[in-house]
Write a structure and sequence with these properties.
Two copies of one chain form a homodimer. Chain A is an alpha/beta fold. Chain A has a single domain, classed as Aldolase class I (TIM Barrel). Helices cover 44% and strands 16% of the residues of chain A. The first copy, chain A, is built from twelve helices and ten strands. In chain A, strands 1-2-3-4-5-8-9-10 form an eight-stranded parallel β-barrel, surrounded by six helices. A two-stranded antiparallel ribbon of chain A has the order 6-7. In chain A, helix 2 runs parallel beside helix 4. The longest helix of chain A is centred in the C-terminal third of the chain and has 19 residues.
């Protein structure tokens, strides 16, 4: 999926919402547990109820790997369901991978070829040759951690390295990598004031923004400092949407919560010129 | 598996060799491709031929995920084979994971509970709350990236942050985390001279050392600066052992190459007092 197609979809739906499919079987409605594949059935119901309100879905791979073969099967069925029924949706494998070159190539193959996601999240610690194998897939997008939304972000990401915070070095350095135009970045919403500095470094890149909702970030603040001419934001909400209810009405309640965010987003997106 | 059991095994076998099971089906002997599960059959043959020469096996998870469900099945069969037939072997899921707390908990569950590995590799970029969920498994070991063996290690890991290289900040900071005694660290062999500085910071921790062999590091240099009273090293070799031959003799040749390393190690391990 091209960036332009994503931007068009955002304008069309008046939404830059990404819904995180972080499915914990201990949190889903109990009536689903009788079905053969509760995780997939949960995802399918959430997708059916919310796909008109969001532009992206982001399964967090940890939640599938924790259930072994069954989890991997549910993940495969979920991405297939999205690719067949909603090819207009941008799909993100939230995997935070990164390894030496030949190993990163295998991860890229796993998420871009075998599972056919549009994008994958990666971690920068191992540097250029750990990320470029993902960037070789020029039809795909590689979303690199910059400044995350957890408290541990302040352990290393904000250390002053060569006169600037490490996350800014990460952004600056990555701009020089091959096919860097296919990079997007993870920037946590809990620190909206940082967005202005980040936009100085990467004015045109899409930012994937976790931390709105459960982690406490303000959507308006994020947009004030982070939005660019192409919108340039994908704001993720996971638990606040998918666990809106633990009853049989879970999908309806998820859609209601997604709509609250979508309507707020619609008010923040400038009218298409 | 306790650290003391690992140290005893090293003394008994006169080896601190870890064999990396990074299985690429395009590189394994073609006669295996006719079998139902070529990856597992390859691993089983390698394990059968080399388990007396090494103390650890390290499947790199990327190589399994790249083959989807089949890959995950082969990984599960491999770890089960090791746990049943060779409980004395230390097993490492080379996954380089790291995410916000509740997500890292799911990865910990995947590798420590579902797959029952003794240890998992993790990436430090997201800080304390991304690693502590792994450390909560006090019977297990968490192996954190410090200084890796690839060229990209010099992009961020060696940047000066708060007056010292970032990887040294990572080591120092991690010592304060809960259950830090269960941390081990990845330190690449390609920079043996760094080992002295690393030993000043973490004198007692085990170091997992890639980069001997294919990536060009010297075993003698690594031992000179990196060995401690408990040996404290697991030196990994992957391609140099498992792809020693692409013929029907692959397992025999793998054992020959493993033995070359084991004999060199035996000469570098002080006699048990």
């Amino acid at each position: 999926m091209t960036t332009q197609a994503l931007v068009s979809e955002i304008q069309k739906k008046r939404s830059f919402l990404c819904i995180g499919l972080d499915v914990d079987v201990t949190k889903i409605p109990t009536h689903l547990l009788e079905l053969e594949d509760p995780i997939f059935e949960f995802n399918k119901a959430i997708i059916d109820a919310t796909h008109h309100l969001c532009v992206a879905y982001k399964p967090n791979i940890a939640f599938y790997e924790a259930y072994g073969l069954k989890g991997w099967t549910a993940l495969q069925k979920t991405i297939n369901y999205l690719n067949i029924n909603h090819p207009e949706i941008f799909t993100i494998a939230d995997a935070k991978r990164g390894d030496i070159g030949n190993t990163s190539s295998m991860y890229a193959k796993a998420f871009f070829e075998d599972l056919a996601f549009d994008s994958v999240t990666v971690a920068p610690y191992m540097g250029k040759d750990s990320i470029e194998p993902f960037l070789e897939f020029t039809e795909k997008h590689t979303i690199m951690l910059a400044l995350t939304s957890n408290t541990g972000a302040f352990d290393f990401q904000t250390l002053t390295a060569n006169g600037q915070p490490l996350y800014q070095s990460v952004l600056e350095t990555s701009k020089e990598w091959k096919n860097a135009q296919n990079l997007m970045y993870v920037v946590g919403a809990t620190k909206a004031s940082y967005f202005a500095e980040i936009r100085n470094i990467v004015p045109d890149s899409f930012l994937l923004v976790p931390g709105v909702g459960a982690q406490g970030g303000s959507l308006e603040e994020v947009c004030k400092y982070g939005m660019n001419a192409q919108i340039g934001l994908l704001v993720n909400s996971s638990r606040g949407i998918i666990y809106a209810s633990s009853g049989r009405d879970f999908a309806i309640k998820a859609a209601e919560n997604a709509q609250v965010l979508q309507l707020e987003m619609a008010g923040l997106i400038p009218k298409d010129p």
